[in-house]
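Hi support team,

I submitted a single chain yesterday and got back a structure, but I'm not sure I'm reading the token output correctly. Could someone confirm the output below corresponds to the sequence I sent? I've pasted both exactly as they appear in my results page.

Thanks,
R.
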Amino acid sequence: MKRIIAKHQALLIHWWLTDKFPQQHIDNIFLYHPTGFKNVIRNYYRTWLVHPLKRRFAKYYLLFLKTFFGLKVIGITGSSGKTTTKEMLASILSLKGKTVYSFANIDPIYNIPATILRCRVSTKFLILEMGVEYPGEMDFYLWLAKPDLAVITNIYPTHTKFLKDINGVNKEKSKIIQCLNANNIAVLNFENRFLKQLKNQVKAKIEWFGNGSEIFATNVKINSNFYTEFVLNYHQKKEKMTIPIVGEPFVKDALAVISIALCLSINVNKIKQGLTNFNLSEHRMSIKKLESGSILVDDSYNNNPESAKKAVSTLKELSKNKKTILVFGDMLELGKNEIKYHQEIGRFISKIGVDYVIGVGKLSKYVVLNKRLAFETWDQALPALKPLLKKNTIVLIKGSRAMQLDKLVDHL
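Hi R., thanks for writing in. Yes, this is the structure output for that exact sequence:
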């Protein structure tokens, strides 16, 4: 009898928190215990009343806007580049009509309903960043907001602690395009082997970007202002483009954005203007000059195996004759393969040839060949880093938010 009652209680909780609400998030609700009477009351009020009602209202409000006012919904997912893609796209679409897009640094479970409710009848475009960490999250996002146009930037091993392996990552993220119908559009990276395999699983029209497709980049280079220049090749035409961010990986994000914009009949001049003026997200390959004369590349927002390799490659490209320093924070939520991925990055860094590597976190010892430069916290690493910062050096700080390397950036 107790088991039957518990089962019905679980079903009731799941129903109230809304259909498709991920089980891991339900578990997290019961694991969270705020301190202080006011915080407890506020948490219960928001968790059990405000958010469930907000989700339901957001879902049907969005359906109303799409049906009667022609609002276009663009969903963005992928293992990296989601936020940059979102910011670039918002900059371009804002030139065409009123555009609403996801807040930065907020869990999509709460971010997406809040973003939907910022729309008005005059809103033309809604851009939703749909990052997944747990199984079932994408089902919830799609229950809330089915996109008219969806983009997957790439598929790499991220959050494998919960999604098990790269196949689990692919299975969860690919749901965003498998829900599309023949009137919708899927924008996919032609260079990613997992995405190429989805070709026959999608009813929507597919627009490819990247090498081997009709939309690709050539002559990629970093100019003296640390902006990235490239030649856009699209449908047998060419156009010179500039993005105010450093590194070839961001060119791929730009190609995804250009593909979306072209699908929405936005002309190349507006695309160029939007890309030139987009707002660079904080702690993503931003360049700063330090008092010592050294150059700091701040990429402390996020860290995973693929983005780490690309960031280190960009560091080497920027260095020229300068000494290179890498401060590397642990890559998190990689599950049983976390040691293997850190060892692989260590070998990659050694092959690239970085002069100094300072690790931060419990797993950094697998990255740093010189174990004396491996520390558990950012403040322990600071005294080792400061003497290395001289006029002819460039330092990359690469980490996840949980490693608090943004605090290290602030202290420099």
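A quick pointer for reading it: The CA atoms of residues 185 and 202 lie 10 Å apart. Let us know if anything else looks off.

Best,
Support desk
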